[in-house]
């Protein structure tokens, strides 16, 4: 038993610590919590809630918005974001109830940032 105590004292702070004290101070690695990804159900808006883009396109859902942003020029984008607030953010919040996405879109300063925010949110 004397041999065992000597081995424990090598790993502890002093020669008088016993094995019970060493076990108490040992910490176990805790598994990291995985960030649960929010799943978004992409649904079409009711016909009376479609978004009419100033170039004639009609958007029914968030995927349509994503596709329209790719094809939209800066002038058309500015029309919907610089006049009376961000029309895209208002539409996303009012029609789909996605407040977090609406905040991200409203904070976006340009078309590219809006596209990135939308892509990150809906995947």
Describe the structure.
- The structure is a single chain.
- By secondary structure, the protein is mainly α.
- The chain has 2 domains: 1-27, no CATH class; 47-122, no CATH class.
- It is built from 7 helices and 2 strands; from the N terminus they run H-H-E-E-H-H-H-H-H.
- The longest helix has 12 residues, at 111-122.
- It is globular, with a radius of gyration of 28 Å.
Brief sketch in words of this structure:
With 123 residues, this protein is mainly alpha-helical. The protein has helices spanning 2-11, 19-25, 62-71, 74-81, 87-96, 99-107, 111-122; strands at residues 51-52, 58-59. It has two domains: 1-27, no CATH class; 47-122, no CATH class.
Number of domains: 2
Span between termini: 61 Å
In DSSP terms (H or I, runs of 4 or more residues), the helix count works out at 7
Rg calculated over all Cα atoms:
28 Å
Number of strands: 2
Strand content range: under 5%
Unreliable residue stretches = none
Chain-averaged pLDDT: 80
Shape: globular
Strand numbers in spatial order across the main sheet: 1-2
Helix content: 40-55%
- What would you call the structural class? mainly alpha
What is the N-to-C succession of helices and strands?
A: HHEEHHHHH
Instruction: Please give the largest β-sheet.
Output: 2 strands, antiparallel
């Amino acid at each position: 038993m004397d041999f065992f105590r000597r081995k424990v004292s090598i790993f502890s702070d002093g020669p008088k610590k016993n094995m019970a004290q060493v076990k108490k101070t040992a910490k176990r690695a805790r598994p990291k919590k995985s960030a649960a990804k929010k799943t978004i159900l992409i649904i079409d808006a009711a016909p009376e809630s479609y978004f009419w883009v100033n170039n004639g396109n009609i958007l029914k859902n968030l995927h349509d918005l994503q596709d329209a942003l790719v094809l939209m020029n800066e002038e058309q984008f500015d029309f919907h974001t610089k006049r009376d607030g961000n029309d895209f953010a208002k539409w996303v919040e009012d029609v789909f109830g996605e407040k977090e996405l609406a905040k991200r879109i409203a904070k976006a300063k340009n078309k590219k940032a809006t596209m990135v925010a939308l892509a990150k949110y809906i995947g």
